[in-house]
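ok so I'm stuck.
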Amino acid sequence: MDDKNKFNLPIYILLKCFNETGNHKLDIDISNNKILSKTLESKKTHTIKIDSLYNFKSSSIVKINFNWTGDEHANKYLKILKICVNDQKLTLHNLFYYPIKNEYIKKLSANEYKEKILKPGKTYGWYGRLTSTFKLGNSIDIKKLTRNDAYNLIIPGGDKVYIND
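replied:
not stuck anymore, here's the structure
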């Protein structure tokens, strides 16, 4: 594989979305490059699968963002079932969740917030942004990224996706 193609890697994302009463929208980007923008109908479970190649261009710290918005209703969810890059599974419980604060969220106690918002598992019930962050490169590049990254203070180790040299 020549250098210009070694960062053109397979990505696979599988998720489900539902909102009982209103339309909702899902945007997915990789380090601010939009790969999906989809308006979803209400009363229907939507299965979204991305199975394609993506050119990451270089070794780096990569963020996959899921931005979910729509009409507020109690009966809705976003379930992220699988994220793979270069046939390597990313850890789903490492996603950062930034819900759009509504009245319900504002009234949660610190313990309820921790349990419902910070530890949701694979199912997210509030609109907002979810971010998966990982290091991409060969073993030498990843070591360099690890030494120079504030992300390691939050999640020591974190996900790493190795490329073939």
